[in-house]
Amino acid sequence: MLGDVLVALDASPVRDIDDVQAYLSGEQIEKPVKASIIRAGTLAEVVITVGERPAAS
To answer: What distance in Å separates the CA atoms of residue 27 and residue 52, rounded to the nearest whole number?
Structure first.
């Protein structure tokens, strides 16, 4: 959701976009990932499925 802050993926801390991109390699596509987020000031865990990024047009 807009305003969520991503803090970890499968318990691996996320400090910046480089951490996210390193984690979301091709082998993670279509697999569930546990994401720790801060939503409305509260830490929450959600399961997301990583999709393939659309090609640039």
So the answer is: 11
C-alpha to C-alpha distance for 26 and 15, rounded to whole angstroms: 20
Choose among 48, 8, 46: nearest CA to 29: 48
In eight-state DSSP terms, residue 27 is: G
Whole-model pTM: value is 0.77
Cα(45)–Cα(38) distance, rounded to whole angstroms?
Answer: 9
Residue 57 has pLDDT above 90, yes or no: no
Q: Say if residue 27 is exposed, middle or buried (CB neighbours under 10 Å; 0-12, 13-18, 19+).
A: exposed
3-class secondary structure, 22: helix
Which tokens sit at 40?
């409305």
